[in-house]
Amino acid sequence: MLKYPKDYLDDVMVRFAYNSNAIEGNKLTLGQTRAVILNETITSTGIEGVKLKDLYAADNQKDAFNELIYLANNNAPLNMDTLLKLQFELTKNTIATAGKFKTNENYIAGADFKTASLQVVYQLMHEWLDNTSFRIENSKNDDELLRTLIETHIDFERMHPFDDGNGRTGRELINLELAKHEMSFLVVRVTDRPFYLQNLADRNVDNLVGYAKERMAEEKDRYTAYVSQNQKQEQFYKDEIKKLDESTISAKEKIYGVRDTSAFDKTDIQLNRVYARKFLKENHFEVSDKNIKEISENIALNRINNREKNKDFSVQAGYKSEKEKLDNSLVKKTYNNKFKEHNNHISKKLYPSKTQDQNLEI
Where is the signal peptide, in residue numbers (predicted)? Predict the structure, then answer.
């Protein structure tokens, strides 16, 4: 699956949720949908006449989309569990039969055909899943895969296997497979609803494939823009971290270049190490010899700086200065990357390392 920047995922999730819901008659605006999904809030302004079901439907889209990303990341097969899980996420709190096939015969308004009957819907969906999975696995290229998704989407919508959420579930399934195959998402716009529904009814695969390609090309441009911005931001962080590292090296040289070493006799060095361990433990960093050495040197530097400024240069003051550095978000990110704790708690308990500071605690 493609690596999606988080801000892009938020963007496409909101747009997909709004349009997919609005196609089915949801009255929330794009802004209101964004507020529900990203902020979990909504203002009273403009909310008159909006049904509670519409609010739940917007919130459900967030859960369903997150489930879609999880399934795509794990290359989940298109099977009954996947189908019912997505339908459940989309319709929970809105219908009594969320995650189950329909319990009442249903009809598509204006359609000249019948949907799948209650007696055969389960069997038909088994066949649909098997057939769709087979065709997807045997698609030779992206064009063939997209055509398969559109053709099987038409079949799915004509069967209408659920009491509610058929359109939303069908469009969710398309995007699940697109994500699994590292293709752009397809956002069917509510403004194109008449075209979309008419071509579904007419089984016009060519028109829908052409439409999907246009929308997906636009989505690819949008995704690329987010990736580019994300890469620039990451490079900025790397440059800033490099500057911090260089300043740290310079500071350490300053430590070792100081002539007056009265603050660095054996006892003080040991105290610096003890407080370094305290710092690492309190901030959930890995307590390793390497990290203890680096933080203790930082504490020593803090003490030197304090002494040069005629301030308290005790080990406690040096430790406090080190803690205050974490108020800077960039420094905190650097420390998290450099000193982060690894998942080796069990081995540590069974085989504790015997460092020279093992019995020294604050």
Answer: none
> Is the pLDDT at 139 greater than 90, yes or no?
yes
Residues assigned a catalytic role: 160
Binding residue per annotation — 170? yes
Per-residue pLDDT of 338-359, as tens digits, reads: 887 654 433 333 333 444 444 4
Q: Which residues contact 71 (CB under 8 A, 6 or more apart)?
A: 82, 85, 86, 176, 180
CATH of 4-227, one of 1.10.3290.10, 3.40.50.300, 2.70.50.80, 1.10.10.10: 1.10.3290.10
- Indicate the domain borders of the chain: 4-227, 255-337
Q: Is 110 annotated as a binding residue?
A: no
Transcribe 145-195 into DSSP letters. Answer: HHHHHHHHHHHHHHH--SSS-HHHHHHHHHHHHHHHTT-------GGGHHH
Residue 46 annotated as part of some ligand binding site: no
**What would the pLDDT profile of 297-333 be if each residue is shown by its tens digit?**
888 888 888 888 888 888 888 899 999 988 888 888 8
